[in-house]
Amino acid sequence: MSNSGRRKPPLVTDKRYAKQAQKKAAPKRKTTPSRKRPKKRGVLAWVLAPFKWLFRLIWVITTRTAAVALLVLLAAVGYTYTTLPAFEEQLDGRTRGSVTLLDSEDVVFAWRGDQFGGAILSTSVAPSLKNAIVATEDKRFYSHFGVSPRGIASAMRINMREGRKPWQGHGGSTITQQTAKLLCLGVAYDPSKWKNEAEYEADCRRTTLTRKGKEAIFALAMEAKYTKDEILSIYMNRAYLGAGARGFEAASQVYFGKNAAQVSVPESAMMAGLLVAPSRFAPTSNIERSRERAATVLRLMREQGYISSAEEAAANASPASLSSAAKDRAGEFFVDWVMKTAPDFLTSDTTEDVVIHTTFDNRLQMAAEDALDYVFQTKVREGSKAQAAIVIMSADGAVRAMVGGREKVTGGFNRATDAKRQTGSAFKPFVYATAMDRGFQYDSTVEDAPITINIPGSGPYSPQNYERDFKGLMTLTDALRASINTVAVSVSEAVGRENVRDVATRFGIDNKLADGPALALGASESTLLEMTGAFAGILNGGNAVTPYGLNELRLKGDSAPLMGKEGGIGERVISPSAAQQLTYMMHRVVTDGTGTRARLSDREVAGKTGTTSAAKDAWFIGFTAQYVVGVWMGYDDNTPLSGVTGGGLPADIWRETMVRVTEGLPPEPLPMTRPAQPPRVKPIVPQGGGTYQAGSGNRTNQPQPETLEDALIGVLRSIFGN
Fold first, then answer.
1. Where are the beta strands (DSSP E) in 443-529?
2. Is the pLDDT of residue 562 over 50?
3. Where are the alpha helices (DSSP H) in 380-484?
4. Nearest to 501 by CA among 518, 480, 476
């Protein structure tokens, strides 16, 4: 059909495409990218903005500084790690050795120096000991890496609360840190840098902030180098536990007489309790205080599950007790004296472990100490500061026991060996020993009469008797028995002072003896040890002795001794006959003379009293057939004794000592002259040549001495002329 002239209507599709074309053909309008409008900031945001920036800066600096510090720390720990020696080399770090002393029965009774019982491992000791140490010192020992931040923070808080600097006082140290301190952070002892070991150890224990940092580095290095058990082993071998004990093996032997593998729960707790303050809690110083500390350790062990409540109760009910040697602390003065008799490099300054065999007898030591305590408790006023000393000796000079004072202290002033005091009438036996050896006899007649000797430069000297009277004619035995001063001076002048000095010196009185006539009355000074040794020479028949306490010294583990005894019986001083007569005369001193308070009911005794001017010193020295015992009493500052003479309290102490010493010993007779009857004064019968017979006991095979009066006149004439 043809189109009638009307336009064709467009197709729908065409309309759609046409619209799209128009859109494409239309020019594009330029548009700018859209921007988000900034949110309005609040006031707080403006205030915090600078701080956010500062915090970011601090964070960056801190993290980078921490990273650098960590690298430095790792480098320091790594370097320290390379300097640590093998584990075995760390166990015994003593700079000096030990001295172990054995008594006459070869039983250990004392220790000196740094005792080290031998290296031990934490795995070889009694489990209770290991557990007690960990429970007391560092309960997180097996879980931390050597340093405990929690412990350090707690310790700093406590220190500041108690008014100290944060790092002073409680350290919060782990066992590893304590071990580092015991190793002195690897710094070895240098005698040229420190005066002594004590100063070295004090320097090692300093707790400055810098040192605590070094300690932490050292502890971390140890944790990397050694196992936990190895660190604990080093600690157990090096820790000081009082009484000279270095390490738990030495402490076990010193305190309990057993090995560290054998100690019980109460003993383990007691030793672990020493770590906080070894000197204060040492059981040898105060056993009760040590037990109280052990109870605290037991509680910690129970709280941490190492023991049950029942085991804790049982341990508290039966606390640890010391061995007999540790309990007695036997022979402190004797040990100090013996240590001085050997060279320092083998005793006080030894770097080796030394064993000394001695003459010590603990039974006799206890006898002397008990006797002294008994007399002071029963016969001396309470609170008295008077001192006393005792020496017990065999006739050959072997010292068996020694009391140097009323207190028991190591290194204390020893009045038996170091105090030089005037001897008083205790010296008179040496005057009569000289006379006996030069022809006089126990029954020779003398006259107790006034005597005056003019001393050039000093004037006249007139000795007085104790009772201020004169008894006339008497025998030498009676003169010594009654301790007559005038007769002693007369005899000394008759036989010659130089001879008396010679006899006394050869018997062992090694001091400057008086030059004047007062020599006979004990104006010279001597020690109790010397005097006791001199009397031992009378007992043994007239031979000098050198007192000794050391029998043998050797290095531990060696069989060959380095030293033997350097004392004993020496040269003869007087004849056996003179010694026997003198012993009889001294026996009479005890039976019916000035020393009757020293008598024993079951055996013979000989001795001599001595009291100095103003009673500043009082002595009694005597012997039985088995032992010589010397006793001195006085004040350290020379204050006069009140109402005390040698025949009083010193004789009491002597008797109480000897009663205990001789208990169980069969009585033996004294080696002395035994006259049928006690000597008495007889009429002096002139003999040919102007000499005199002075008693029935004189020897007949030698010229007899003149009467002492004539002899003295002759001496004075030879000095001053007619």
1. 445-448, 453-455, 459-461, 472-475, 525-526
2. yes
3. 428-436, 476-481
4. 518
